[in-house]
Design brief:
The chain is α/β, with parallel strands linked by helices and about 280 residues long. It folds into two domains: about 5-150 and about 215-275, Rossmann fold (3-Layer(aba) Sandwich); about 170-205, no CATH class. Helices cover about 40% and strands about 20% of the residues. The chain is built from twelve helices and seven strands. It has helices at about 5-15, 20-40, 60-65, 85-90, 125-135, 170, 175-185, 200-205, 220-230, 245-250, 250-260, 265-270, and strands spanning about 50, 70-75, 95-100, 110-120, 140-150, 235-240, 270-275. The chain has a seven-stranded mixed β-sheet, sandwiched between helices. Helix 4 (about 85-90) links the parallel strand 2 (about 70-75) and strand 3. Helix 1 (about 5-15) packs antiparallel against helix 2 (about 20-40) and helix 7 crosses helix 8 (about 200-205). The two termini are about 30 Å apart. The model has no long low-confidence stretch (mean pLDDT about 95).
């Protein structure tokens, strides 16, 4: 498995919105961290693996280098001129990309050994349907790796950052905050920390377009726990990663109490990670 190069990840992240190819390259370089997180969770990457929401395809390509065959699926064919091009450049042949709906996966029952979902579930209108579909295409004993971030956290809100670090989504609510950032991208991009190469709001505004909100489902700690509990899966592990600020500000022996408070825990957690097994 490739080493994690934080400098390369940072450099690729700064230009990831120049094109889908640049985003695929960013995913490919960053995937070393994703793969480490997956394996650290106890999921062994093996056999046939589905990346159920592959975006530009970079992560699926990295997974293909670790397993016998990888499939990347996304509702939008973002991978058509990015993941496929990068696969040719890297000489990766044991990978396939499919345009398809995560709520109705175009695969036979029990087709995969592992299904991965990284920062996908919040972009779908029905989390329960998606999880059920991922269970359907898994073989018995197969593992489902599910990671996302609470919508109220800085990682999960999917909004740009202000030069003055004010979490306006907590003050105004996310929907109104989204409209504020659309306005700023068009009228005052100087107020935003990221510019067009790392900010789709500004990039689209510069071309006379407006960013559409693709966050369709609110993720909360209680909500995702309920989705998992109602799913066909057996729970193997659950991990909540607290952001650096809160891990420094709140002593470890008090964090559990804070995480149990609705809304407060959703702000503190930067990533939720589940490992589920199909009986």
């Amino acid at each position: 498995m490739r080493d994690i190069d934080n400098d390369a990840i940072r450099a690729a992240g700064e230009i990831r919105f120049r094109s889908e190819y640049h985003y695929a390259m960013f995913e490919y370089i960053r995937s070393a961290k994703v793969i480490l997180s997956i394996e650290r969770s106890g999921v062994k990457l093996r056999g046939r693996v589905l990346d159920a929401g592959c975006g530009s395809g970079g992560t699926a390509l990295s997974i293909a280098e670790e397993v016998s065959f990888a499939v990347g699926l996304d509702l939008s064919p973002r991978f058509s001129d990015s993941g496929t091009r990068l696969a040719r450049e890297k000489g990766i042949r044991n990978v396939a990309f499919t345009q398809g709906d995560g709520l109705k996966l175009p695969y036979f029952d029990e087709s995969f050994d592992v299904v991965l979902s990284h920062s996908v579930i919040e972009h779908l209108p029905s989390a329960n349907t998606y999880i059920t579909e991922c269970a359907r295409v898994l073989k018995p004993g197969g593992r489902f790796y599910l990671s996302t971030a609470p919508t109220r956290s800085l990682a999960g809100v999917h909004l740009p950052r202000l030069r003055v670090p004010v979490p306006i989504h907590l003050l105004l609510g996310r929907k109104l905050a989204f409209r504020v950032f659309v306005f700023l991208a068009a009228r005052a991009p100087w107020a935003l920390k990221e510019q067009s190469s790392a900010n789709t709001f500004v990039k689209l505004a510069e071309s006379g377009q407006e960013k559409e909100d693709d966050l369709l489902t609110e993720v909360t700690l209680r909500g995702i726990a309920s989705w998992v509990a109602c799913s066909p899966f057996k729970l193997i592990s659950e991990q909540r990663y607290v952001t650096g600020f809160f891990s420094r500000a709140i002593p470890e022996f008090l964090r559990g109490a804070f995480l149990a408070i609705p809304v407060v825990g959703d702000v503190m957690v930067s990533q939720i990670e589940y490992v589920l097994e199909k009986p």
